Amino acid sequence: MTDRYTQGMKTRRAVLGDAHVDRAEAARTDFDTPFQTLITEGAWGTVWSDDTISLRERSMLTLALLAATGNFDEIPMHIRATARTGASPDDIMQAFLHVAIYAGVPKANHAIKLAKATLAEMEDQR
C-alpha cells in the first residue's frame, strides 16, 4: 500500500464512516480492485485529504457537482457524510440552489428530493 492509499483510507473512513467503508471493502473483488485503489488514492488520498479547503466545503462542492452532472446515485451517500463533515442542511440547500441557477432546475429538484429523503432517514436513526 502506498502512503497516498493509507491516507486515502483514513480520510475515506473519516468522511463516510467505518460501516460504509467496511461494506465497500467486503464487496471488493479482483475485478474492481484497480478502481477501488484509484478512488482511494485519487479522490480520498489526494483531493479529500488536501487541507486547502475544509471537509464542509468539499461536501458542498461534491454535492453540487454530483447534482450538476446528473450523477444522483452518490448523493445520498454524500448527504449522510455531512454528519461527519459539518455541512448543515442549509449548506446543502445552498449548494443545490447554485445547481438550479447554473446547471438547471430539474437537476437541483431531483437532488433536493434525494436530500430530503436522506436527511429524514438520518433524523429517524437518531
From TrEMBL:
SUPFAM superfamilies: AhpD-like. InterPro entries: 4CMD/NDH-1_regulator (IPR052512), AhpD-like (IPR029032), CMD-like (IPR003779), Decarb_PcaC (IPR012788). Residues 35-117 form the Carboxymuconolactone decarboxylase-like domain. GO terms for molecular function: peroxiredoxin activity. Pfam families: CMD. NCBIfam families: decarb_PcaC. This is 4-carboxymuconolactone decarboxylase. It comes from Roseicyclus mahoneyensis.
